[in-house]
From TrEMBL:
<protein>
    <submittedName>
        <fullName>Uncharacterized protein</fullName>
    </submittedName>
</protein>
<dbReference type="InterPro" id="IPR001129">
    <property type="entry name" value="Membr-assoc_MAPEG"/>
</dbReference>
<keyword id="KW-1133">Transmembrane helix</keyword>
<dbReference type="InterPro" id="IPR023352">
    <property type="entry name" value="MAPEG-like_dom_sf"/>
</dbReference>
<keyword id="KW-0812">Transmembrane</keyword>
<dbReference type="Pfam" id="PF01124">
    <property type="entry name" value="MAPEG"/>
</dbReference>
<dbReference type="GO" id="GO:0016020">
    <property type="term" value="C:membrane"/>
</dbReference>
<keyword id="KW-0472">Membrane</keyword>
């Protein structure tokens, strides 16, 4: 059975969240990893379930968007933890939101 395209990125971000937990003195970043990605988990798992239980196949875009989101969130974590430059952080946050919105659009399309 083929693993849905969104599952590996979900596992990667869960792993990153646990890694940041080890660096707990960066508590703000740890909190942010539990706040912002919650919608990502819901969208990615929903897409995976839909693809696993219906005839809907992944176009490949879902996996690319999911990995892009994970990558952006990891870079955001590093910026916040190492330099905490607010304009850079905001740009990365905004980019992650646009990426997640694209993934959400794929979910909405799958549900229609």
């Amino acid at each position: 059975m083929e693993i849905p395209a969104t599952i590996r990125p979900v596992a990667a971000l869960v792993g990153w969240t646990f890694a940041m937990e080890l660096w707990i003195w960066k508590a703000d970043n740890y909190n942010h990893l539990h706040e912002a990605p919650t919608r990502f988990y819901a969208v990615a798992v929903s897409l995976a379930v839909i693809q696993a239980t219906t005839q809907l196949k992944s176009s490949g875009v879902e996996g690319k968007l999911a990995w892009a989101y994970v990558g952006i969130r990891i870079v955001h974590s590093l910026v916040q933890s190492l330099t905490n430059k607010i304009p850079v952080r905001f740009g990365l946050y905004a980019l992650s939101e646009v990426t997640l919105l694209g993934l959400f659009g794929k979910l909405v399309a799958a549900l229609l």
